[in-house]
Amino acid sequence: MKKSVILVLVLFVFSCRLVIAQNDSLPFIKGVYGNPGTLLEAGYSFDSLGMNAVFVRSISLNRQFYDTARKQGCRVYVEFPTLNGTNYLKDNPEAWPINEKGEQEPPADWFMGICPTDPGFKTYRVNQLNNILNEFDVDGIFLDYLHWHAQFETSDPILPLTCFCNRCMDMFGDHLGHDIPGSGIPEKASWILNNADDDWRSWRNNILNGWVKDLREIVKKKQPDALLGVFYASWYPADHDSALYRNLGIDVAELADLADVLSPMLFHKMKGRPVEWVGEYVKWLGDLINAGENNAPLIWPIVQAHNSPGVITANEFRQVMMEGARQPSSGIMMFSDQSLLQDPKKTEVMKEIYWSEIE
């Protein structure tokens, strides 16, 4: 019996070392996503809330915020709106995502994507990333909106198929080794979907992976110690007729080979899921990517406190925070700072969890 107890303890210690060995320089990350500067304006301090990290939208990043976050002991991770085309398209309609009818695909609810093969847009985003890295020493860049034009933050997602612009047609034709048959976009799109659908979905996925590789190279060249994270739609592969891959262009296993951190967007209320789903997805992801093994990315979920749709009570917020922080997670963040300001009870919940319940 004594030998059995000792063996169990040895195995336990060894398994714990496996979990933390991949990044033992980092504590458990406790953060807020959005514009955390509003918490400072409201009289809070990050350290008093138990936070050790901020995940700030790039448009909200400024020197005063950065310096304050550093003084209060926070790591600074910057959200980067990779394929959000809203502002760029105002002056560059040539980058508009085109559907199978040859028409400009309209906004998907509040989101407007872009054609990710547009070279001008790629240059535009690369310049923005370089500007951030030239001005600030960051702990990481987190790629957001890394998907083909669609809206997934809802229980009834909007899932158009894009892009069938002439540039994409030519590029996909080069990939196949021949011109796409047809006299116009509708005919060419029809041919693709009926004759080369699998190749086309794979090609679209490779386009997204190319973005990740290129942006990662820039980050690592300028700031080798900075992490590259990815926010992504937390669907299982078969959800919505395999839309994660077939429409959005995302293969989670492939992202795991490219990113240092995966941050599934576990917005349970938006997706019509129960609270328990948050923990279930974290476990599924950990099993998929062999979390804890060498070279496996870290898992830092982002969970919902935002009251839309419906209302998330302080108790429900507590539940999703604890579900998202389950192993193999090594960090947790919540969306968003405004939710805390609108409901001080949620602020107290986060403070209590960050100070006493997550180690």
Quantity of strands, as a count: 9
Strand line-up across the major sheet: 1-2-3-4-5-6-8-9
Low-confidence stretches: 1-22
Listing every helix as H and every strand as E from the N terminus to the C terminus, the arrangement reads HEHEHEHHEHHHEHHEHEEHEHH
Q: Structural class from helices and strands?
A: alpha/beta
How far from one another are the termini?
Answer: 31 Å
Rounded radius of gyration (Å):
21 Å
The number of helical segments is 14
Roughly what percent helix? 40-55%
Shape: globular
pLDDT averaged residue by residue: 93
User: Major beta sheet, specifics?
Assistant: 8 strands, parallel, barrel
Beta-sheet strand percentage?
5-15%
Task: Explain what this protein looks like in three dimensions.
The chain is globular. The longest helix is centred in the middle third of the chain and has 26 residues, at 197-222. The chain contains 14 helices and 9 strands. α5 (119-135) packs parallel to α8 and α11 runs parallel beside α12 (314-324). With 359 residues, it is of the alpha/beta class. The chain has helices at residues 2-21, 37-41, 63-71, 88-91, 119-135, 166-176, 185-195, 197-222, 239-246, 252-256, 276-289, 314-324, 337-342, 344-357; strands at 29-34, 53-57, 75-81, 140-144, 227-233, 261-266, 298-299, 302-304, 331-335. An 8-stranded parallel β-barrel has the order 1-2-3-4-5-6-8-9, surrounded by 4 helices. Mean pLDDT is 93; it is low at 1-22.
